[in-house]
Amino acid sequence: MAPSSDETVTRERTGILDRVLAMIELLAVHTEGLPLHEVAARLDIPRSATHRLLNDLIGHGYVRQDGERGGYMLTAKLVSLSFTYLAGSGVVDLAQPVLDRLARKTGELVRLAVVDTDRLTWVAKAQGALTGLRYDPDMGMEAPLHCTSSGFAWLSCLNDTEAMALIEKQRHRRPGLYQDVGPKGPRTDEEILEHLHLARQRGYSITIETFTAGMAAISAPIRTREGRPVKGTLSVAGPHVRVTEQRLHEMAPDLLAAAAEIAATGLGSPAFQRFRRDRDGDIFIGSGP
Fold it and tell me: How does strand 72-74 pair with strand 63-65?
């Protein structure tokens, strides 16, 4: 039976949306911009269609073209929308005082990430290192699950099968995140699982140069109580020359206490709500248990 005209239009619109979202995610990783031919090649889209969609994104203010090099890059519009959402959700207002205290106590970068269905995104931070070497990445970045302390902290609360399925899903959806890892980053599934098993035993994850050369981090999950869904993660990171493995373990009690405080005070935020199913199997939005 041939598809109806409505079904054909729906598929076409879905295909266009998939391409547009893929372009945005690709350009989000390549902040320096990419030329037209490289965007087309990386996404396996004809150049004519790539050019048309990029021009549409330019027209809506989400992309701009570098006048000198001709590369395409994102504008600040997405960032503005993200922070508008976060401000309205109350996440930053609730968590920021906790982040600030932990940053002052540790003297390092503290970051909050929230779980959004199948991904983990850094949404707030506090910098405790006021002088000397500082590790200070941008917010709004999706955390690579296979090599970051935040990713390991979240996945350690799932079983191995669920954890590896999320990693594989991210690898397929965001291949750019998997092109580079730190010098000590895991290269095999077995090495990833080793990190997850250690994190389960400790209640927190530790990474040293797995994500970025010269950087060490510790992260703890945020959840109401054992066995309940993880809402996000809280991490402390800094240069490995200063943040040794011993120092990371020494930070653990303060980190765990701060994560528990956020779990106790921040669960009313819409950003910590989860998809749930009613008795008929329909999905609705509601606060996680």
Answer: antiparallel
Residue-wise pLDDT tens digits, 63-108: 988 876 789 998 877 766 766 666 555 566 678 899 999 999 999 9
Give the model's pLDDT for residue 150. 96
Q: Are 105 and 234 in contact (CB under 8 A)?
A: no
Whether residue 90 contacts residue 269, with contact meaning beta carbons closer than 8 Å, is answered with yes
Radius of gyration for the chain, computed over Cα atoms and rounded to the nearest angstrom: 20
How much is the pLDDT for 105? 94
- Identify any residues that bridge with 46 across adjacent strands, giving them in sequence order: none
What's the CA gap between 161 and 12, in Å, rounded? 34
Written as six digits, the tokens of 139 are 């917010």
176 vs 16: CA distance, rounded Å: 21
Rounded to 5°, angle at Cα 144 from 120 and 134: 95
Q: How far is CA 104 from CA 67, 85, 107, 108, in A?
A: 42, 27, 5, 8
Burial 62-93 (b: 16+ CB within 10 A, else e): bbbeeeeeebbbbeeebeeeebeebeebebbe
How far apart, in whole angstroms, are the C-alpha atoms of residue 256 and residue 155? 17
Query: Contact at 8 Å (CB) between 269 and 222?
Result: no
- Residue for token digits 């989860």? 274
pLDDT of residue 275: 38
The tokens for 117 are 């269905």
